[in-house]
Amino acid sequence: MSDLLYHWERWVTFLMPPLLHSGFFTGLQMGQGLWRVARNQQLQQEGYSEQGYLTREQSRRMAASNISNTSHRKQVQGGIDIYHLLKARKSKEQEGFINLEMLPPELSFTILSYLNATDLCLASCVWQDLANDELLWQGLCKSTWGHCSIYNKNPPLGFSFRKLYMQLDEGSLTFNANPDEGVNYFMSKGILDDSPKEIAKFIFCTRTLNWKKLRIYLDERRDVLDDLVTLHNFRNQFLPNALREFFRHIHAPEERGEYLETLITKFSHRFCACNPDLMRELGLSPDAVYVLCYSLILLSIDLTSPHVKNKMSKREFIRNTRRAAQNISEDFVGHLYDNIYLIGHVAA
Q: Which residues form the F-box domain (predicted)?
């Protein structure tokens, strides 16, 4: 017996403080309290108690007592009232979706403006008047296709922005399969005018066109390419950053050739036209910018390609570039190298 008492004292001495500190018994008491609450509520619904049947008056008294002690149980036990939790969950399930027609119109339109075309069509099955509003579909059209000739015209009889969205989407899919047929589709529907400038604006403000098909189209339509280049504004931009923006809209070909030379030539003249003061300060001409652009493209390939083991150093780049364009300052060429080294390829 003395051995049992000895071991019991050691258990109390070494195990009780950590359990009390960890909240073990507090959690156990809370669990027991929650079980009692759930059990009592179950017994109330069934009309039983642990001792046997309850009369209707006893059940009513027990229910009233539980309701009056709800706040006290929460404060004392720190637990969750399971009954109210389930009741709140059930009420939320019964509420369902919010009826947008019961909200102020400006709030309803703001909520629907976050939907894409597919979801807006689905919403029109429930809220037909709201989801078919012309302002919502006009916003969808202009956010995807920023410029169309039809935007600046008086709409014809029976015009609908929802119908226009479907036509623009159909025309974009047609363009991505065959660029010429896509442009002809837009013109046949009155969406675009037969003008290189209007086509260039449409391409410049649209991001749904396949860049490979677009490159083929611009290679064939140099008149559209000329107007597309003039839409770029490179004022006060660093040369590598301006070249990245240019190739983001007009993708460079995968191989060197006549088309790449044409793109760089047009970019060089446009960059000089946008920055006349800088060109005079640095003593650069369109031909010098042309040389720098080619140097930046070759440097980008050298620094980013995993097949090139011996990367070009900054000193080598400065020496090679100044050999091709002698009037360029060494500091300016060094900044060009740092930009490519830190940011990456100019035609990625």
A: 97-140
DSSP code at position 347 = -
How far are the Cα atoms of 30, 42, 66 from residue 62, in angstroms, in the given order?
A: 21, 12, 6
Which of 289, 280, 285 has its CA nearest to residue 246?
Answer: 289
Domain boundaries along the sequence of the chain:
2-95, 133-218, 232-343
Tell me the backbone φ, ψ of residue 48, rounded to 5 degrees.
-120, 165
**How large is the C-alpha radius of gyration of the chain?**
37
Q: What are the tens digits of pLDDT across the range 277-318?
A: 988 888 888 999 999 999 999 999 999 888 888 899 999 999
- Fold identical between 133-218 and 232-343? no
Structure tokens at 310: 């011996």
Tens digits of residue pLDDT in 261-275 = 999 999 999 999 999
Per-residue pLDDT tens over the stretch 158-216: 899 999 999 999 999 999 999 999 999 999 999 999 999 999 999 999 989 999 999 99
Digit-coded pLDDT (tens) for 32-82: 444 454 445 554 554 444 444 444 445 445 444 544 454 444 444 444 455
- Whether 284 and 328 have beta carbons less than 8 Å apart is answered as yes
Contact predicate 190/167, CB 8 Å: no
Task: Locate 66 and state its tokens.
Answer: 């539980």
| CA 340 – CA 336 distance, rounded (Å) | 7
- 8 Å CB contact between 37 and 43: no
Pick the CATH number of 133-218 from 1.10.220.20, 2.40.30.10, 3.40.50.720, 2.60.40.1080: 1.10.220.20
Residue 52 pairs with which residues in a beta bridge? 49
The CATH number that domain 232-343 falls under is 1.10.1000.11
**Identity of the amino acid at 297:** I
Contact 214, 238 (CB under 8 A): no
Question: Are residues 180 and 213 in contact, defined by beta-carbon separation less than 8 angstroms?
Answer: no
